[in-house]
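FORM 12-B: Structure-to-Sequence Request
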């Protein structure tokens, strides 16, 4: 009998893993929004997140602005960007060129999404176009494979979306988990969930996914629950009903300060429940606003690794 390996002899070498922390940003549409975004970026940068994701418009409608923001994050901050990429309406050749461009600019994380068509657009089949996020994950891995030697100091991390409640176009929650499992088999490293409003939704997703064989980290995407309008809009888009009690409490608040306190408290409770259920960290949807996100983070008190502080590179606004 061969002697046990080092890992078998010492199964707990690494101890408790710290919580992951990340934020979502979106490309600004106006000069004023750009200035506000950079204030948010600097505030979020001070919390030393593991990465920040940058969204990508329907069918890549704001691709140039997104790429510009990614470049500035890479060259003017200490942040690690995760680039959203959607495949709907694009051919494999077009997407391979985009992935190559992102890698050439230094991006080492991509969130592979199917995406939606712009409002009012009709679906159009194009020869060679990709249909599903699973196809995009495979394409990213093929591009990466062709560039292995260039990526020796930084392989590509590929993320995908997960759905705590049934996707609006899906026949069932079980089908959603099968899709997630297929994305894992195609090479996905982790998943970030869509917005959810009730702790049980994340807990049940985690249980379904693990039973089906999904082993990748499922990171809960948490939105600061401070705006009634945003709650209702995203609830409609995600097909999830926000807590009526929370909506009433926010609507009855005397001012923005009270509304923010109510919403932050509810968000912290939601995030803590996800962490208690086994979440490996938290992804905060910031809507390019740092105030509520930082309030949530302050009260959540995540276990975070100690990292050396880097000197800020100056933004040339």
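FORM 12-B RESPONSE
SEQUENCE OUT:
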């Amino acid at each position: 009998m061969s002697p046990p390996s080092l890992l078998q002899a010492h199964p707990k070498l690494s101890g408790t893993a710290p919580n992951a922390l990340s934020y979502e940003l979106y490309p600004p549409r106006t000069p004023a929004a750009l200035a506000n975004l950079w204030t948010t970026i600097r505030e979020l940068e001070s919390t030393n997140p593991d990465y920040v994701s940058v969204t990508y418009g329907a069918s890549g409608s704001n691709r140039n602005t997104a790429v510009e923001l990614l470049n500035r994050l890479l060259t003017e901050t200490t942040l690690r960007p995760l680039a959203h990429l959607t495949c709907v309406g694009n051919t494999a050749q077009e997407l391979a060129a985009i992935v190559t461009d992102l890698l050439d600019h230094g991006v080492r994380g991509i969130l592979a999404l199917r995406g939606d068509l712009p409002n009012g657009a009709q679906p159009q089949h194009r020869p060679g176009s990709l249909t599903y996020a699973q196809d995009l994950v495979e394409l990213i891995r093929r591009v990466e494979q062709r560039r292995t030697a260039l990526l020796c100091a930084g392989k590509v991390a590929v993320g995908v979306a997960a759905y705590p409640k049934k996707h609006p176009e899906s026949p069932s929650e079980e089908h959603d988990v099968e899709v997630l499992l297929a994305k894992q088999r195609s090479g996905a490293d982790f998943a970030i969930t869509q917005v959810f409003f009730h702790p049980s939704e994340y807990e049940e997703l985690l249980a379904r996914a693990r039973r089906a064989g999904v082993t990748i980290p499922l990171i809960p995407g948490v939105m600061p629950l401070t705006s009634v309008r945003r709650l209702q809009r995203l609830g409609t888009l995600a097909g999830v009903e926000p807590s009526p009690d929370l909506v009433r409490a926010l609507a009855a608040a005397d001012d923005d300060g009270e509304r923010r306190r109510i919403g932050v408290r509810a968000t912290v409770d939601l995030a803590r429940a996800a962490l208690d259920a086994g979440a490996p960290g938290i992804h905060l949807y910031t809507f390019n606003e740092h105030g509520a996100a930082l309030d949530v983070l302050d009260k959540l008190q995540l276990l975070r690794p100690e990292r050396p502080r880097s000197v800020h590179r100056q933004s040339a606004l």
